[in-house]
Design a protein that fits this description.
By secondary structure, the protein is an alpha/beta fold. The protein has nine helices and seven strands; from the N terminus they run βαβαβαβαβααβαααβ. The model has no long low-confidence stretch (mean pLDDT 97). The chain binds NADP nicotinamide-adenine-dinucleotide phosphate.
Length: 248
């Protein structure tokens, strides 16, 4: 797979799944704009790692919940590299609790980051992708947005919203040769899932037909497929990468 000449923005790209995506895109030749919010040290170390591999990388701090900060992020990418071909809306947070205990702020923050953040970034890059009549947008949703999960009314709503956003945007942008798809990871080993108690993890494992938790590279390789020519007739779809946890 050759992504040479392509410019990719990865939100939350310094950490967890996003870091694996940034590295995979870079290893296949793309110039990567790594967005981070709080993990500056990780972003700097990733930039060094990518540069050591001989590839280009720009790191940009921005809270993707803010349209203004997203605008600065996209403008930084354009002024540094001149164009943007790939957007991976990966950044996301959880603030789990049963609805009786969940605060309004827990709900608002999760929607603002996971759903509005992806809308902000998609709106801003669409302008450039539409003009160049090409582009790939990949949204990282979750199986929680497809089948729900107790304790995640905020998170599931944000991720289900992201599925709707994916399908509507795919329809809007298809005529401009822009593919918009989503990936729904199941249980992937990262800091996000590291917070869960062991008994919750073993319960998940019992229900995963492939009998293992996912690795960040399982998601990165699916992103590579969705931004490549191998998937050029695929748009508006949600690909589950979950070891078979959710079927049908
Ligand atoms: P993670 O390790 O907790 O990383 C989350 C990333 O999101 C970090 O890079 C963080 O950046 C970034 N982020 C959070 N708030 C942000 C904001 N306001 N602005 C910009 N960036 C922000 O989580 P992960 O497991 O890699 O998750 C990545 C994506 O996969 C998320 O969308 C998550 O919902 C989804 N997902 C994960 C799993 C799983 O099992 N791990 C399953 C389904 C879906 P900083 O560190 O710089 O703050």
């Amino acid at each position: 797979m050759n992504l040479e000449g392509k410019v990719a923005i990865v939100t939350g790209g310094a950490n967890g799944i996003g870091r694996a995506i940034s590295l995979a895109l870079s290893e296949h030749g793309a110039k990567v704009v790594v967005n981070y919010n709080s993990s500056e040290n990780l972003a700097v170390s990733l930039q060094d790692e990518i540069k050591e591999l001989g590839n280009e990388c720009l790191i940009v701090q921005a809270n993707i919940g803010s349209l203004e900060q997203c605008n600065s992020l996209v403008e930084a990418a354009i002024s540094h590299f001149g164009h943007v071909d790939i957007l991976v809306n990966n950044a996301g947070i959880t603030k789990d609790n049963l609805i009786m205990r969940m605060t309004e702020d827990d709900f608002d923050q999760v929607i603002e980051t996971n759903l509005k953040g992806a809308w902000n970034m998609s709106k801003l890059v669409s302008r450039y992708m539409t003009k160049q009549r090409s582009g790939k947008i990949v949204n990282i949703t979750s199986v929680s947005g497809l089948v729900g999960n107790a304790g995640q009314t905020n998170y599931s709503a944000s991720k289900a919203g992201l599925v709707g956003l994916t399908m509507s945007l795919a329809k809007e942008l298809a005529k401009r040769n822009i593919n918009v798809n989503a990936i729904a990871p199941g249980f992937i080993e990262t800091a996000m899932t590291g917070k869960l108690p062991e008994e919750v993890v073993s319960k998940y494992l019992e229900n995963i037909p492939l009998s293992r938790l996912g690795e960040v590279k399982d998601i990165a390789s699916t992103v590579l497929f969705l931004v490549s020519d191998y998937s050029k007739y695929i748009t508006g779809q949600v690909i589950r990468v979950d070891g078979g946890l959710v079927m049908g």
